Each structure stands twice: as structure tokens, then as C-alpha cells.
Amino acid sequence: MRTFSRFNVASVTLGLAFLYAPILLLVIYSFNESKLVTVWGGWSTRWYGALLQDEAMLDAAWTTLRLALISASVATVLGTMAAVALVRFGRFKGRSLFSGMIYAPLVMPDVITGLSLLLLFVALGVARGFWTIVLAHITFSMCYVAIVIQSRLSTFDRSLEEAAQDLGCRPFKTFLVITLPIILPAVVAGWMLGFTLSLDDLVIASFTTGPGATTLPMKIYSQVRLGVTPEVNAVCTILIALVATGVVIASIVSRRRELERQRAERLAAAMP
Amino acid sequence: MAGEGDKERSGWTRWLVVAIPYAWLLIFFLVPFVIVVKISVSTPLIGQPPYTPTFDITGGIAGLFASARQLVVDNYIFLTKDALYWKSYLSSLWIAVTSTFLVLLFSYPIAYGMARAPRAWQPSLLMLIILPFWTSFLIRVYAWIGILKKEGFLNQLLMWLHIIHEPLTILNTNWAVYIGIVYSYMPFMILPLYAALERLDGTLLEAASDLGCPPTRSFWQITFPLSLPGVIAGSFLVFIPVTGEFVIPDLLGGHTTLMIGKTLWDEFFSNRDWPLASAVAVVLLILLVVPIVIFQNQEQKRLERES
User: Between chains, do A116 and B32 touch, taking CB under 8 Å as contact?
Assistant: First the structure.
């Protein structure tokens, strides 16, 4: 009994409207001619032009982009290893501590993670800056990656791997040739999640940064504290557009792959 | 054919696969907490870093004992004496409990509606719920400043509809904080709720209605109890991070909004009292340890059920 009643339609519609209205308003008002952010003064792209002149903003954007690329990539490698260890290696010594350390960062308040990492860097006498933020971001991103890949690995048909190994394929090669291509969508999703988490983080970066390394969220935050400005709306719109395009493309690609896989399975089943 | 050498090599790779991420998390996740605890019992100092280490190895064993005896728990005593801190903790917990309930209240109908939607629409609806979650948290909170401020969109709309005649003060009050939290954390609640409701066996409800059970009663007796795993998972995903939330109370809250994440931030960045900030963090962690452990156990059980 699956009825999509009027009440259900209304709640889903209102829910989506609530989720999207603030973002839409922000995007629309980034094209506002007026300097007053809540008064409409006609369409204009002047704030995007102003953005291109803002060296500090461009600098922060470049820092953030490098940061997100490096930390997401390293986190994907470490997170994949962690997921394989959790799903495939049974009950090794210290497993519960390991899985605890994977799950805790998901809910740990950012202020605690940020403060504790900063104190670690100070205790080690490391010069703080770009690379300390990279280390911090890898740490929390790898946990998200591990969880995304873990749930894919746990619903994985192991007979393919076993077949490869029975035919003399070494475990590492089996992983590269059999396992990795199958879990690839999850790996890509994990990388994207790590990338956006890094792009997004304000609190942990503020704690772990040093002189000279300002990320885009830190720059946006310092401007936001002074009030809403059309220029900030423009930066936010660009970020939203980038992330939305990436996510939509990725989901279309993964859905197409899924359909192809289903078609292949149906064909295989139809073969005599 | 895999020979002895291969087996040895594979054991070695296997060891590395566990050891590398394990060591990483030990160094960058667990050790930092130990350092926080250690610094929370040291005295503040003007300089870089602004604290004096409590344990000095140079004093030998006797020195260690001496410093351990007069362990500076001053920071913790200070936390209990100054009303600001315990008020911040209590107010954070209160805001977290209330907003978790509010998030649940608003997310349930949405998740329920999604689970009842035609099968073909469900992937797209799910995608629409997840998409805002991918855009920056800071940006989503920032967007609400323009809506909630005195001359903002909400007041404009309400005055245009003649519902109010004077603009309401919402920004920089706790109302704004609740709105911000409900908005930002809704996807965390909707997703586990949807997962639980989507699995729900429709024949149970059919049987109940055939036996003359009114829809409201079958909801409370069948649907809601069966969706409880989703309710619990979602509540933890909201409650724990909200307790330590900084961005929302900082940007949307006012002077009267007390939240411990903001207190910690101010203690650290404005007052530069690192030991006290560490003590605040340790107490916050102690408050959250029980919910975090319960959350982990739940997640592990869920994973074991699935595989």
C-alpha cells in the first residue's frame, strides 16, 4: 500500500522549498545591481567583476583549491585502506579502537578537533600554515571516505575475488584488477565528499592555520562578520555552482553505469 | 601458483593496509586529545605557546611527582566558579536537545513523504535532499542572515502579506539559531529516517487497516516504532555536533546566545587562554563521550546487520 497522498506531496514540496529557497535567494541577489543586498536594483554582474579584482579573495580561492585537491586525494587512499581493513581483515587486534577512531570524527564538534590538532602541532614544534591544514583535513576526510567505501565493500560479491585468487592472482593485484574497478563509484564519491568537506571547513582550518595561509571559508567568514555584501554572495554563488555541477555530473554518470550493469546482467541471465 | 614468498609478501601488505591508517589516526586523532588533557592542567603564560608545560621531565621522577601532586586543576575550578561556563554548557545542551526534537519534527513528514513517493521518483528526491548538503555549511548559514535581518526577505514578505506591521527582530536571537540548526542539520535526519521508512513493509499497514485500525493509530503502533532505528541514528547525528556548534550561534545568534563552541572559540582566539580553552574542550568531550559511544555501537551493529 504505497499511497502518495496530498499530505505527502505537500510535506515533500514544502521541505524542498525550505531547503532551496535560501540558496536561490542568495544566488539571485548575487546578480543584484544595488549595493543594498536586500533591495533589488536590476540585473548586473558587477560583483563578479569586482571579485576578479580582489587579489586576496583569488589568493584564498587558490589556496582552498590546492588544499581540497591534496587532502581529498590522500584521504581517499588512506580511507580506502581503512575500509578494506575494517571489512576484510576480520577481528584483528585493536579493531574496536580503530573503528572507534573512524566513527568518532563524524560527530566530533569541529572546535574540539581543531583545538586538539593545533595543540599537537605546537607540541611537535611544526611551523603552522598550509601543510598543517592539509594534515588536519586528511584526518577527518579519510574517516568519511572509509565509511562510504566500507558500506560498498560490505555488500560486495566476494566470489569474484576468490576466483581470481584461485587462478593464482596475488592479493594486491586482485585488489587492483577486480576489487577497485567494482568499488570505484564509492571511491569517487568518497573523494568528492573529502573535496567538498575540505572546501567547506572553517573551524578546523582557523585553528590549524598559521601566518600566510588563508582559506576561502576563512576569508568569507571575516567578511560575513562585517555584514552581508553582494561580493560575498557572488563568491558563494560560484562555489555553489561548482559543487552542484560536480555532484550532478557524478550522479548522472553513476546512474548510467548502474543501468549498463543491469542491462549486462539481464543479457547474461538471458543467455542459454 | 602462490609460493611461500608470495604468502609472506601478502602478509606484509596486509599488515601495511591496517598499520598506515591506524598510525595516522593514532597520531592525528588520539594523541591530540591526550595533549588537550595535558594542557588543560597547565597554567597560562603570555608568550608563544601561551602556556607552561605541567610535566617537566628534567626534574626527574621526584619532580614529576611534585608537579603531579599540585596538578593545576585551577582551570577546572575556574570553570565551576565562573557562571559563564556552566551556563554555556547547560544552554548548549538545552539548545541541542530542543533543536534535535525540532529537526525530527520537521524531517519526519518529509522522509515519510519521500518513502511514499512513486518508486521512480525516489532516487531524484533523495538526490535533491542531499544536494544542499554538498554546498558549503558556512554559505547556507550566511544565506539566512539576509532572510532574517530586520530589513530582510522574511520581514519584507510578512509585511507585504500584512501579517505583521512592524518588522520582527529574529536575527541575533535564539530563534535564528534554532532556524539555522533545523535548516543545516535536516538532511542528517531525513536520510536515516528515509532509509528506515523505505524498508517498511506495506502489508503490515494494509493488514491493520483491513482490521479496522484508524490511520493515526496504525502510524503510532506500526510505522513509528519500526522507524525508531532511523530516529535514533538521526538524533545522534544532529545532537552531538550541535552541542559543540560554533558557526550558527556566532553568525545568527546574539549576545544572549550562550553556546559552548562559541565560548571555546572566544577563549582561544580573543582571550588567548589556551589552557582554559583546553579545559572547556575536555569537559565538552566528557559530556559527549556517552552519546558518541552509543552512536558508534549503533552504527557498528547496523553495519553487521547489513553485511
Answer: yes
- Closest alpha carbon to B98 in B242, B230, B294, B231: B242
What are phi and psi for residue A32, nearest 5 degrees? -85, 135
B125 with A12: Cβ contact below 8 A: yes
Q: Where are the domains of chain B?
A: 76-306
Here the ipTM equals 0.85
A228: chain B residues, CB-CB within 8 Å: 142, 145-146, 149
Place domain A57-227 in its CATH homologous superfamily.
MetI-like (1.10.3720.10)
Provide the grid cell at A38. 536586500
Give the distance, in angstroms, between the CA of residue B142 and the centroid of all CA atoms in the same chain: 19
Residues 205-264 of chain B with CB under 8 A from chain A are: 205-206, 209, 236-237, 240-241, 243-247, 251, 261, 264
CA distance B276 to B267: 7
pTM confidence score: 0.84
Q: What are the tens digits of pLDDT across the range A34-47?
A: 777 667 777 888 88
Which residues 8-47 on chain B approach chain A with CB closer than 8 angstroms? Answer: 9-10, 13-14, 17-18, 20-22, 24-33, 35-36, 39
Whether chain B has a CB inside 8 Å of the CB on A5: the answer is yes
Phi, psi of A43 (to 5 degrees): -75, 140
Task: Name residues of chain A where pLDDT drops below 70.
Answer: 1-3, 37-38, 272
- Segments making up each domain of chain A, as ranges: 57-227, 228-272
| Start-to-end C-alpha separation, chain B | 31
CB contacts < 8 A, A to B, total 270
* Closest Cβ opposite residue B116 in set A4, A103, A220: A4
Interface of B with A in 124-143 (CB under 8 A): 125, 127-132, 134-140, 142-143
Cell representation of residue B106: 520537521
Helix (H, G, I), strand (E, B) or coil at B46: coil
- Chain A residue numbers with beta carbons less than 8 Å from the beta carbon of B112 are 8, 11
Q: How far is B114 from chain A (nearest CA, A)?
A: 7
CATH homologous superfamily of B76-306 equals MetI-like (1.10.3720.10)
Cα separation of A224 and A205, whole Å? 17
> How far is it, in rounded angstroms, from Cα A135 to Cα A201?
13
Four-residue CA torsion sign, A59, A63, A68, A69: positive
The chain A residue lying nearest B300, using CA atoms, is: A99
Instruction: Spell out the per-residue pLDDT of chain B, length 307, in tens.
Output: 344 444 555 677 788 888 999 999 999 999 998 888 888 877 665 555 666 655 544 545 555 455 554 555 667 777 777 778 888 889 999 999 999 999 999 999 999 999 888 888 888 888 888 888 777 888 889 889 888 888 888 888 888 888 888 888 888 888 999 999 999 999 889 999 998 888 887 788 888 888 888 888 888 888 888 888 889 989 998 999 999 899 999 999 888 888 988 889 988 888 888 888 888 888 888 888 888 888 878 877 777 776 5
